[in-house]
Amino acid sequence: MFSILFVQGMIKLLDETLELKVREDEVSLVESIIPECEAEFADIMLKETTREYSCELSVIQDSFLTMENGGRCGGVILYAHNRRIVCSNTLEDRLNQIFESQLPSIRKGLFPVNK
């Protein structure tokens, strides 16, 4: 599952180097799948754009996801350009996006139009 979150963030940011913020207990797992994610990103970009792209990932070792910034459920925050551009791809953020996209249908169910 991590690889999906990483590759989606890599495609969104489209930078040569990205830093990853993950939970402290997941650092070793994340470091073990980084080469796989970099290769998957390169394959997807070559197939979709017919151009070679590469991205180098590194895990931030001095700061980790906490309960306050999305670490409750896990996921990743990707940083580009000296941590000035941020792509938060935590599971909490993704759930919030889904909830917000479903608000119109929730409103329609709660407040039907009278004919």
Short description:
This protein is an alpha+beta fold and 115 residues long.
Give the SSE layout.
Elements: H1 2-13, E1 17-21, H2 27-49, E2 56-59, E3 75-80, E4 85-90, H3 91-110
Parallel strand pairs: 1-2
Antiparallel strand pairs: 1-3, 3-4
Helix pairs in contact: 1-2
Reported for the largest beta sheet, the result is: 4 strands, mixed
Q: Please tell me the total number of domains.
A: 1
Q: Give the structural class.
A: alpha+beta
The helix/strand series, from N terminus to C terminus, equals: HEHEEEH
CATH class placement: Alpha Beta
CATH architecture: 2-Layer Sandwich
- Give Rg in angstroms: 17 Å
Strand content: 15-25%
Strand order of the largest sheet: 2-1-3-4
Structure description:
This protein is an alpha+beta fold. It has one domain: ATP synthase, E subunit, C-terminal (hypothetical protein PF0899 fold, 2-Layer Sandwich), CATH 3.30.2320.30. The protein is built from three helices and four strands. It has a four-stranded mixed sheet with strand order 2-1-3-4. Helix 1 crosses helix 2. The chain is globular and about 55 Å long. The relative contact order is 0.19. The mean pLDDT is 92.
Features:
alpha+beta; 18% strand; four-stranded mixed β-sheet; 3 helices; 115 residues; hypothetical protein PF0899 fold
